[in-house]
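Project standup — Tuesday

K.O.: blocked on the structure for the chain from last sprint. Re-posting the sequence here as requested.
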Amino acid sequence: MTKYFRDLLLTVTLSIASQQALAIDSQTLPDVDEGVVSISTKDPFKRVGYTIGDVIEREVTLTIKAPYKLIETSLPIVGYEKRYRGKVIGIELKNIEHSKVEHKDYATHKIKLAYQVFTNSVVAKNAALGPEYLNLINTKDKKQLVKYRIPTLDIAVSPLSIFGQVKVENNMSPFLEPLLIKDDQERKWLKVALSVLALSLLALLYMLGKHAWLPRMGGSFAKAYRTIRKLPQDDAGLKGAISALHLAFNQTAKMSVFNDNIDEFLKNNQKFSPIKPEITQFFGLSRQVYFEPNAKHNVGENPSQWLLRFTKQCRDCERGLIPTTNRAGV
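H.V.: unblocked you, prediction finished:
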C-alpha cells in the first residue's frame, strides 16, 4: 500500500506541476544543470530551397537523468507559429509524435517534429526551426522547475518565382552544396568495364606471360619455352631445344616418354590431347636429329622455329588453355 500511495502522490504532484508549468513562461525558468540532459538530433540534409507548403521533419532524442522528469504538457503545441528574432516567419508546427522509455536511472524521449511552411517572399529569407523549450521537474524537490532548450535549426525559405534580375554569385547560400549531375549509373558501368578490363588483361598475361610468378606458369614446358627462346638457331641450338622438350615431357609424365608410349602419356595428361599430331611430329624430328639423319620429320624447313611454336603449344596445354595451331606463329 505504501508503494501505491507513493506512486499516486508522485502522479498528483506531476499533474499539479504540469498545470503550473502551463502558466509559467519557460524562458523565465533557470536552465537545467549541465549533464542532466543529453540530446541527439536527426536533421534534414536539405537546408535551403523550401517554399510554401513544404513539410520539414526533425527528430529529437532526449535522455533525462533521474530525479528529473519531463513535464509533457510543455511539449511544443501543434499549430504554434514559429518566430525568428521575434517576428512571425510563417512556419507552423504541423505534427508532433512523442514516445518515451523509462529506466531506473534515466528516461529516453523520442520527439518527432513536422513543420510546414506557410509563407512566400519575392526573395530568399532566413528562418529557423526552434528553439523549443521543455520544462523539467525535480521529483525529489517538487518546487524545482527548470527548462531545457532544444537548439534551433537554421534554414532558408525561397520564393516560388524570381523577381527581377538576380546575380547567382551574390545569392549563393553557404548551406547549399554545388549542384552535381547524378552519375551513379555511369559509375556502375565504369566499374563493370574496369573489372572486365582487369580480367581480360589478367587472362592475356596468363596466356602470353613468360614468367613464373602466376599460378601454373612455372611448369616444365614454361621453363622449356624460356630456355628454347634463348638458344641459337643452329644444329647445337636445335639439339638443345629437343633435349629441353624431352626433359619437360618426362617431368610432366613422371616417366620417360617416347614415340611408342604417346597414347599412355595422353591418357594420363588429357589436356595435351589437342596437339597429339604435333607431339608425334616432335618425336619424329627427335629421331631424325639423333638417330636417323635421313628420316622425314614433316616440320618444315626451319625446325628451330617449329620447335619454339610447338613448345608454346605445350605450355598452353600445361596451363589449361586452348593451344593455337602451329601455323599461327609464336
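K.O.: great, moving the ticket to review. The chain is about 35% helix and 25% strand. Residues 132 and 150 are 5 Å apart (CA to CA).
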